[in-house]
Structures are given as C-alpha cells and as structure tokens.
C-alpha cells in the first residue's frame, strides 16, 4: 500500500491476483450443492406423501365397499348364493382372488352402489356364505323361537387416485 499526496492510501493495480473471486466461486458452488441436495430430499418426501395419500384413499374406498356389502346383507331379502355375480359359497373357486393382487379380473363382483369421489375406479366386493347356524337354545325365556344366525365373509377391493393403487379388505359379518 502506498500513501499518495492527499494522505489517502492507494493499492498498486498490478499486484492483485484474484483470490477473492476464486474463494467466492467455491462458496457459491458449495451453496448450490446444498440447495440441490435439499430439493432432492423435499421431492422424495413429497412423493412419499402422495403415495401415502393414494393408499389411504384406496383403503377408505375398500372400507366403503365393506359397509355397502353389510348394508346390503342387513336390508336385503334372502340372497341366492349361486356362485356368480358377487354371491358365492365359502372358498368357491369361481370367486375373484384379489389377495394375490390380481385385480385385473373384477368380474363376478358387485359394484359399490354410491359414488366414491377421487378414485380411479369404484370399489367392488363379493360376499361368501360361510354357514347358517341355529343357536343352542331354540327359544328365549318368553318362548319365542330364536332365529338362525348366518355368517358371511365379505371381501372388498378399493382403488386410490391411481389404478395401480389397490387395497383388499376382508371381514366376517354375522346377521340374524
């Protein structure tokens, strides 16, 4: 550094090497790498959240299918379990087999009676008759005959926002 006549310091122009420029470029590169890494993590979390929402939607659709089948069994007259159109004897070979994740063949199932919004396809279900049993005591204390008790297995298939997302739920239902 040199002092000029007015008392101010001046820097010689020929001696500067540009080290500040090099350091600032390295710092900028490091900040860019940190930002790109943060964006990739955010994108991954966003995908996971979307997939979780899609599966939750499929689960809710399958639950709606189960409730629809239960309402059908509660309110409907006697059903003829003819091993077709959604009504089967227990473990019949003709029923759909969704537990193997082969959801392509949805024939032989009943459609959900409502309209489930936001899904790729409406829920489907089928009902299997397990058994109809007469309770041990044939009448109550008042002498009224006890009705037979029927057991059914309901299997429902629900879809999410994508046709690739599906959930299969099974429940056992008892009716009198």
Structure in words:
By secondary structure, the chain is an alpha+beta fold. It has one domain. 32% of the residues lie in helices and 23% in strands. It has one helix and seven strands. The chain has one helix at 19-75; strands at residues 2-3, 9-10, 87-89, 110-111, 124-133, 149-159, 166-175. Strands 3, 4, 5, 6 and 7 form a five-stranded mixed sheet that branches. Strand 1 (2-3) and strand 2 form a beta hairpin.
Number of domains: 1
Shape: rod-shaped
Q: What is the element string, with H for helices and E for strands?
A: EEHEEEEE
The SS-based structural class is alpha+beta
Helix-strand layout with pairing:
Blueprint: E1 2-3, E2 9-10, H1 19-75, E3 87-89, E4 110-111, E5 124-133, E6 149-159, E7 166-175
Parallel strand pairs: 3-5
Antiparallel strand pairs: 1-2, 4-5, 5-6, 6-7
Q: How do you describe this structure in short?
A:
This protein has 176 residues and is α+β, with helices and mostly antiparallel strands. The protein has one helix and seven strands, in the order ββαβββββ.
